[in-house]
Amino acid sequence: MPEFAYNIRQYYPQQRAELLHVIAQIETYPNAAERVLTKANLIMLHCDQVDPHTAMIVKQELLALDGDALVSPHVYLGQSSNPTKLLAWANERSWRALCAKLQAIPLPALQALAQQIGALLVHNQARGSLKLGSTQWHWGKKTLVMGIVNVTPDSFSNDGLLEAGQSQIQQQALDFADAGADILDIGGESTRPGASTVNIEQEIARVVPAIQAIRQVCPLPISIDSYKAQVVAAALAAGANVVNDIWGLRQADGSWNTALAQVVAQAQVPIILMHNRVSTVEQFAHGTNYAASDYGDIIGEVCAELRQSIDFALQAGIANDLILLDPGIGFGKSPEQNLQVLRQLRTIASLGYPLLVGTSRKSMIGITLNRPVEQRLWGTAATVAYAIQAGADIVRVHDVAAMVDVCRMTDALVRHEG
Predict the structure, then answer these.
(1) Which tens digit of pLDDT belongs to each residue from 204-263?
(2) Which helix (DSSP H) or strand (DSSP E) does residue 51 occupy?
(3) Less Cβ around it within 10 Å: N or C end of the chain?
(4) Domain ranges of the chain
(5) Measured distance CA(390)–CA(242) in Å, rounded
(6) Can 362 be counted among the known catalytic residues?
(7) Which of 250, 362, 376, 415 is catalytic?
(8) pLDDT of 281 higher than 50
(9) pLDDT averaged over every residue in the chain
(10) Is 273 exposed, middle or buried (CB count within 10 Å of its CB: 0-12, 13-18, 19+)?
């Protein structure tokens, strides 16, 4: 027999749907193909603060289901009662079997773990959609492009339109729409280091006329980039459709932004919850918002803090299907920490919510490539393509025409059914 008669190669499915397509080419009974998928789809989960008893039960049960788990030596040697991190892997069918077993054990810790694992498995399959007026977005079908419209005098990217007049703001909106943008993001306060603070009246005076002017000529959905309840309320009344909150419903003192949550809940509009360390709010006001925060496990902590924002949003009455997440590239993170977040973006996407990523012209690109703001187009393109491959649903960009091409080409490679 020829040496390479079987043409053996390693297979790397991009998506669950792609793996199902390959299985279905061999297993021609549709129901059987779906069952085979659950055995072929390997899932690795990382858990924090698992008590030793729960961790050992999970490990033993997974071993019986052809999976496995790593726990700290102090757990399996019985040397301490301290919680452990847990890294576990099994195929989809085994995870579902584990959840059923744990749910049947009358221990709250095990039942809570089973519930959370089960929720993650569901999130990985059901993406859903979002309706904004006459616009319907089906998550996972294509990458949406958010065009940045800064009505500020001091944008870090030197594209502020505060002094430009309404006709130029309208023209930029029309240009973005013609280039293929799906949504416009209107902001009246710069988030660059050293930017001047803007009071509520000033911010409303900037964003409301811009939104009204755009609404006259452009049908695209509009998001309001603000964390101030009064500004958001005025923007929504003027025609905005989405709230983009860079503080994830938190305030400078660490408390929750109840006023903003109430505005969003009452309006029943989507909100983008961005990760941003509250400890950096004071730095933000003094122009050092890009300083690195003290992270032990940056991906774990970003996920945990985003989950806290999600929980608060849900408790405030914001519907689950109106919540989107943003990992906060460039906020409270060093250049290397930003790269770490991008590398592990798929983990953040696994939380089960639509994901917005904003890397456009950010300082991590400038530092990595030694390029000024006006020369960061190709670096931005690389990060956008990578973010899409890693699970981004929306990318927030300055250079809309170029990034639409990047998105459509990357979509052709990544968002296919096999």
Answers:
(1) 999 999 999 999 999 999 999 999 999 999 999 999 999 999 999 998 788 999 999 999
(2) none
(3) N
(4) 41-124, 129-414
(5) 24
(6) yes
(7) 362
(8) no
(9) 90
(10) buried
